[in-house]
């Protein structure tokens, strides 16, 4: 493929995916006494049997460094009313801000924080890590969780697209 066709393909791809409304999640991890949490938009169920969930974390993110040492991740499902939580975990970096001092949480599986303000969460061991370019995909096997409000619409990418990220992707 020539350079012009490749550039057009990239432009088309960015225009198409830029209009998608992916659900947004907060992922938390613990390694030793260090805690991390970040807003993620690249995440999906990736297996039915056994149940598995894939979440992708930017290699530039503070939480990435913790997740690489962690054995467990917790994925928090955000509802349309959880924009404040999304802003806290999306606009701040733990390199500079203690996000967990700014929200209610409890220790969860593997010591990963359970953020109180969300519509539910699942957590479990990391069964694989996959290098995906500028992100790493973490595949977890849900072994614990809580469903608080399954009827609330998920918080989508379009609702948080105006946030100023704490780190570049």
Please outline what is shown here.
The protein is of the alpha+beta class.
Summarize the structure in words.
The protein has 169 residues and is an alpha+beta fold. The chain has one domain (24-160): Pnp Oxidase, Chain A, CATH 2.30.110. The chain is built from 4 helices and 10 strands; from the N terminus they run αββββαβαβββββα. The protein has helices at 3-17, 62-67, 83-91, 157-160; strands at 25-31, 34-40, 43-47, 52-58, 72-77, 105-107, 113-115, 120-131, 135-140, 144-147. The strands form 2 sheets. Strands 1, 2, 3, 4, 5, 8, 9 and 10 form an 8-stranded antiparallel β-sheet that branches. Strands 6-7 form a two-stranded antiparallel ribbon. The protein starts with a helix and ends in a 9-residue tail after the last helix.
Write the layout of secondary structure elements.
Layout: H1 3-17, E1 25-31, E2 34-40, E3 43-47, E4 52-58, H2 62-67, E5 72-77, H3 83-91, E6 105-107, E7 113-115, E8 120-131, E9 135-140, E10 144-147, H4 157-160
Antiparallel strand pairs: 1-2, 1-5, 3-4, 4-9, 5-8, 6-7, 8-9, 8-10
């Amino acid at each position: 493929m020539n350079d012009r066709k490749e550039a057009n393909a990239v432009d088309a791809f960015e225009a198409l995916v830029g209009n998608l409304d992916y659900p947004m999640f907060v992922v938390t991890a613990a390694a030793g006494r260090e805690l991390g949490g970040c807003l993620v938009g690249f995440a999906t169920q990736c297996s039915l049997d056994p149940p598995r969930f894939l979440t992708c974390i930017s290699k530039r993110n503070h939480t990435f460094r913790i997740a690489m040492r962690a054995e467990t991740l917790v994925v928090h499902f955000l509802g349309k009313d959880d924009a404040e939580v999304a802003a806290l975990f999306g606009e701040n970096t733990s390199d500079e801000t203690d996000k967990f001092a700014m929200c209610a949480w409890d220790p969860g599986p593997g010591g990963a924080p359970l953020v109180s303000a969300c519509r539910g969460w699942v957590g479990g061991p990391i069964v694989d890590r996959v290098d995906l370019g500028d992100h790493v995909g973490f595949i977890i096997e849900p072994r614990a969780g809580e469903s608080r409000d399954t009827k609330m619409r998920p918080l989508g990418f379009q609702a948080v697209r105006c946030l100023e990220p704490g780190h570049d992707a």
